[in-house]
Every structure is written in structure tokens, then in C-alpha cells.
Specification:
Chain lengths: 396, 237
């Protein structure tokens, strides 16, 4: 036995099924977008942070013309600097079969004696370089995949005016190039821009940088003042053609990742607000009409001895059904679509691992409160009116 | 009736409605006693204060001053919650507009009240008393006006109230149906000993009552005792 009032509720929900379904769908859409977007934002943040931590993404970057290796030590003495790594980075032209226009690329040195201390590489397939290995490179996955290369394939590179054949022995990902875009380009183009990592000694020899470096990556202590360190780095490297040092916020790949996060966050916030506001408005319209047409019934219920709270709860249950069903559908859709959307977003970025996290917070409860407050307001206003309704034409 | 216990007693009962600076006195010091199991008919022109009086003794409204004693308990002393329980346990209302829930069957409409009443009768028994047991699963829209009003009486009766307050119960009915409804009310009064107070504009109905209370200008203008009560079918509508 569900009780007469609950029976009334069920029959009225059935009578209003068209409107109920419409409101539930609008609400579900809002919640789904909310869960989807914030799920993606959370997953992306988690993935990015994990990737950066695990592969030692640097905090400060600086390029220069040429400096002797001894300068590196001076930079390392700046207070707050914890790890420093010098590199040779060289722009190259690539000659690829079936491509009329030459592609461009960048060759970055890898230490011969140890793994990179910063901006470490994730090996997707193949192998890393042997110490001092000549004419061999590991290549960025997006470029490798875009051209359908196989491990062991050779690529023609014009480096410092000389054409060289380099063998691709491994496919890698780098935290420095999650979003890989050529300098000056508007969009990433994996076919026309490639990244390669080569033995430091081989690269030094090829580009005449023996005992020198032209790129520096720096990791700072947790509480270090990055601005001060950048200034100190700039002053040390100025005589060596140092360009202005920049932090993660200006590092191109990270800049795009952070931008994507901001966009997703804004979308994740705005769209649900619109959907939930519309559904709150619709619930308010339906409940206001429901209550105003049932004023005499509410008066009768009060007259026969129902308490205000019992009558309020009766109407609140209708809102609960809408918000409950809307939340369940929204959460389910958001969770399902979240996985699909995650893959789309991750398709643009190159992460070593994907950390998926479903975003469930108190949004359903907030939506419910938003709707319930409107209904409660109607009931409070109505309870006064109903007393006079049940009194009938009292002055007559 | 004088030897029966008193159900309601009002003392200098006043009610003033205020609209801005305008004051309208709906009741101007009503003093009356109603005994248990009495059937009272209240007559009077519109605006004479009948409904206001009924709302106050039924616990739907509060008096501006004066007292209403129900079995010795002053209703003015009761809180909102206690007034609600007073209505729930002691009073049955029958309205002119029936006020049935259209989405509930006849049986469910009666159950609406029996579910919260402390000592209800079986809803089917209440419907049976009104001759509606074969209509239990019909919706109000499938019933005639008289049948709907009898459902409303069954609903009021089902909680076994001490007092039945009926505001124009035959106001929306034709004479034939009105007779059926009045018969039902008289049966309840006679069979269950429920005090019945009926407000009406129809002077003929007064012939059914033990006493007739005439209202005029917010006060009792005349109280008549019917030495011989007529049956509903005997009165001329």
C-alpha cells in the first residue's frame, strides 16, 4: 500500500509525462555535460601532472647561441635551482619521399652517459640510443605515425648544410612536446614537423658544438622564486646570446595543454548552468501551475488535518522524482560519453599514460536544491492562500 | 437537548478582518452553545458571518477575541500543530464544491483521510453508509454531483469525527440529489451521534434540524427549536 497521497503523485506524474520527460532530459543533459567536462578536465589534469612528475618536466627553459659547458655550473649555483641539464638543440630540414615541400624538424641531444635528468623520454616502441651511437635517432611518435615509418627506416636530414641519413631506432614521447607544433605554425602538423633525439656527442660533432650547449632546462626547488631564478639565468647567459628564460606557463606545449584545460573548464561550467537553469525554470513553471490549480485541494488537505510539512513534502516528491531521474540519466550519460570524449581530447595530445577519472560531486544535490527552493517558495506563499480557500467565502 | 453534554460553546466571539486601514467585523460577539449529537442548520444572508463562525469552531481560523470551547477545551489556546490535530481527529468538513481529488478513486479519496485519522472506520464501510460501495473504484469525474457530495460526506464520516461541519452541502445540487445528500447527513447524525452543523441559504432545509440558528450582521439574531423535524423528502425545495 503506497498511500493515497503517493498514489495521487504517481497518477499526476503520469498525466504530466510529456513535460516530465522534457524537463528530465534537459536536466540530464546539463548534468551529463557537467560530469563529462569536469571528468575530462580532472582526467587531463591528473594525466598531465603524473606525466610531468614521472618524466621530470623542467620548470624553466632557455635557449642561447652557444655557451661552454662550464657555464652550466654557474647557472646551477643559483639559489633555488635543483637540477640543470644542458642540451644541444638544432633546427633541421627533412627530405621525405613523396613530399614536394621539405618538412622541418628539431634535433635534441640526449646525454650519452646517463638518462636525461630532465624532460625524460617515454619509449613507445623500438629502443633508446646506445652511448655515442652515430647516425641514429629516436623519433617523436606523432611524426613517425603520420608518415607510416617503420623502425629501422632512414630519414634524410639536412643538418648544418650537410645531408645525413639517420636511422630511426625508437619511437618516443616527451613531456616537452605533449602538443607538438612547429615554431610560427598555427596548428600542429605532424607530417611537416618532426622531433628527433640524438646522441649528444654525435650531435655536437655534426653541428660544431663540441664542449658547448645552446639550450638549458632547469628544475627548481618547490618553494623557489621562479622569477628571480629566471632573471639570474638571463644575466648569466646574456654574454652567450641567451634569449629570455621562460617558465612552464610560456612553454608552448604546456601553454596549449593549460589552455585546453581552461576552455574545457569554462564549457563545463557554462553549459550545465544554462541547462540546469532552464530545467529549474521549467520545474518552477510546472510546479507553480500544479500548485495554483490545486489550491482548493491543498485547502481541503489542510482542513481534513494534513500538516503543512506533509503537504509540502507531497509536492516536493514530484521535484525529487524529476531531479532523481534526471541525475541518474545525466550521471550515466556523462560517465559513458566521458570515456569517448577523453579519447578525442587525448588524440590531440601525446601522453604516455591516460588517467581517467569520473567527476562526481554534489551537483545533483545543488540542482535539487535549486529546484526545491522554487517549489518551497510556492508552497510557503500558497499555504497562506489555502487557509482562506478552505475557509470558503468567509465573509459571506 | 439541554441535558446532553455541550459540544461547542462560544463566548463573545468576535472576528475582524483588516484590509489596509479598513476593518470589517465578520462576527460581533457570538454567544451560543451546541450540544453533542445535535443537528444545527445555520441560516442567514451572505456576509452575515456563518462561514466565519464555522471556520473558527472548525479550527481553520482564529477568532480576534472571545472564546470557543470544544468539550471544555479553548481552541484559542491551541498551537497551529494542535489545531491541525484537532481538525484531523475531531472535525469532518463537507464543502459545497466537494473538493475531491480528481486523480484518486472514490475509495482512495476516502482513504486520504482514514490514513491519518487515529480511529477511522474502514473506507468501504463509510462508502457503504452512503450507498456508494459499488462506486468505490470510480473516479470523481465518473460520478454525478450528488454522488460526489456523498463521497465527500463519506470522507468526512470515515474518520469518525465528533462534529461534521457542512458549508452549503446542497448548494451545487438539484433538489432530488440534495434530498439524497441531506438524508445521508441525517443518517450520520442519527446513526453515529455526530454533531452536524449545516450552513445553507435554503430556508426549507431548516425544517430538518433540531435547532435553527439565524445569523445577521455577524451575530445570532434568532434561535428556533424545531418541535417537529421533517424528513428531507417532506420538505418543499
Amino acid at each position: 500500500m503506497i498511500g493515497a497521497l503517493n498514489q495521487k503523485l504517481l497518477r499526476e506524474i503520469w498525466q504530466l509525462k510529456g513535460q516530465m520527460v522534457a524537463i528530465i532530459l534537459v536536466m540530464a543533459a546539463g548534468i551529463a555535460v557537467f560530469v563529462l567536462m569536469f571528468g575530462v578536465v580532472d582526467s587531463l589534469k591528473l594525466t598531465k601532472n603524473t606525466y610531468y612528475d614521472r618524466y621530470q618536466f623542467a620548470d624553466i627553459f632557455v635557449s642561447l647561441k652557444r655557451a661552454p659547458e662550464s657555464v652550466k655550473q654557474r647557472v646551477g649555483e643559483i639559489p633555488g635551482v635543483s637540477i640543470i641539464e644542458s642540451r644541444v638543440v638544432f633546427g633541421v630540414t627533412l627530405q621525405i619521399k613523396n613530399m614536394i615541400e621539405p618538412a622541418s624538424g628539431k634535433i635534441i641531444s640526449l646525454p650519452d652517459s646517463h638518462d636525461p635528468l630532465l624532460n625524460n623520454l617515454y619509449l613507445r616502441s623500438g629502443r633508446f640510443l646506445y652511448p655515442n651511437e652515430e647516425n641514429a635517432v629516436v623519433v617523436d611518435e606523432s611524426f613517425f605515425t603520420a608518415h607510416g615509418f617503420n623502425l629501422g627506416d632512414k630519414i634524410s636530414v639536412i643538418m648544418n648544410g650537410y645531408k645525413r641519413q639517420l636511422t630511426m631506432v625508437g619511437v618516443v614521447l616527451s613531456p616537452e612536446y605533449v602538443y607538438s607544433i612547429a615554431p610560427g605554425a598555427l596548428m600542429p602538423d605532424s607530417k611537416r614537423y618532426g622531433l628527433f633525439w640524438m646522441s649528444r656527442r654525435s650531435l655536437e660533432a655534426a653541428v660544431n658544438m663540441k664542449g658547448a650547449f645552446n639550450d638549458l632546462s632547469i628544475k627548481v626547488d618547490r618553494n623557489a622564486n621562479i622569477e628571480n631564478i629566471k632573471q639570474s639565468v638571463d644575466s648569466i647567459l646574456k654574454p652567450y646570446g641567451g634569449l629570455i628564460a621562460y617558465g612552464r606557463d610560456e612553454q608552448i606545449s604546456n601553454f596549449f595543454v593549460e589552455n585546453e584545460l581552461k576552455q574545457l573548464y569554462s564549457m563545463g561550467l557554462m553549459a550545465p548552468i544554462v541547462f540546469l537553469s532552464v530545467s529549474a525554470f521549467l520545474i518552477n513553471v510546472v510546479m507553480t501551475r500544479q500548485i495554483s490549480t490545486q489550491r482548493e485541494l491543498i485547502g481541503m488537505l489542510k482542513a481534513v488535518g494534513y500538516r503543512n510539512i506533509e503537504i509540502s513534502l507531497h509536492y516536493l516528491k514530484m521535484v525529487l522524482v524529476i531531479t532523481g531521474v534526471g541525475s541518474i540519466i545525466g550521471l550515466s550519460l556523462g560517465g559513458l560519453d566521458g570515456n569517448r570524449y577523453d579519447k578525442n581530447v587525448y588524440g590531440v595530445f601525446s601522453f604516455s599514460h591516460i588517467k581517467v577519472q569520473l567527476f562526481i560531486r554534489s551537483h545533483g544535490f545543488c540542482g535539487f536544491l535549486l529546484h526545491a527552493s522554487g517549489v518551497y517558495w510556492n508552497l510557503v506563499c500558497d499555504s497562506k492562500c489555502c487557509e482562506s480557500t478552505s475557509s470558503g467565502s468567509d465573509a459571506s | 437537548m439541554a441535558d446532553k453534554p455541550i459540544s461547542f460553546k462560544t463566548q463573545d466571539l468576535k472576528k475582524v478582518y483588516r484590509t489596509g486601514e479598513t476593518e470589517v467585523a465578520a462576527l460581533r460577539g457570538v454567544n451560543i452553545e451546541i450540544t453533542e449529537a445535535e443537528l444545527i442548520v445555520m441560516l442567514g444572508p451572505s456576509g452575515s458571518g456563518k462561514s466565519t463562525f464555522m471556520n473558527i469552531i472548525g479550527g481553520l481560523d482564529r477568532a480576534s477575541s472571545g472564546n470557543v470551547l470544544f468539550c471544555g477545551q479553548d481552541l484559542a489556546e491551541l498551537s497551529e500543530k494542535e489545531l491541525t490535530y484537532f481538525r484531523r481527529e475531531k472535525v469532518g468538513f463537507v464543502f459545497q464544491a466537494y473538493n475531491l481529488v480528481p486523480s484518486l478513486t472514490v475509495l482512495e479519496n476516502v482513504a486520504l483521510v482514514t490514513e491519518i485519522a487515529p480511529n477511522p472506520m474502514d473506507p468501504m464501510q463509510a462508502l457503504d453508509a452512503m450507498g456508494l460501495n459499488n462506486r468505490a473504484n470510480h473516479f470523481p469525474s465518473q460520478l454525478s454531483g450528488g454522488e460526489q457530495q456523498r463521497v465527500a460526506i463519506a470522507r468526512a464520516l470515515a474518520k469518525q469525527p465528533d462534529v461534521l461541519l457542512c458549508d452549503e452541502p446542497t448548494g451545487a445540487l438539484d433538489s432530488e440529489t440534495g434530498i439524497v445528500v441531506l438524508k445521508a447527513l441525517m443518517d450520520v447524525n442519527a446513526k453515529f451521534g455526530t454533531t452536524c452543523i449545516i450552513i445553507t441559504h435554503n430556508a426549507a432545509i431548516a425544517q430538518l434540524a433540531h435547532r435553527v440558528i439565524h445569523f445577521a450582521d455577524g451575530d445570532v439574531s434568532l434561535v428556533e427549536v424545531n418541535k417537529i423535524r421533517k424528513q428531507p423528502e417532506q420538505i418543499e425545495w
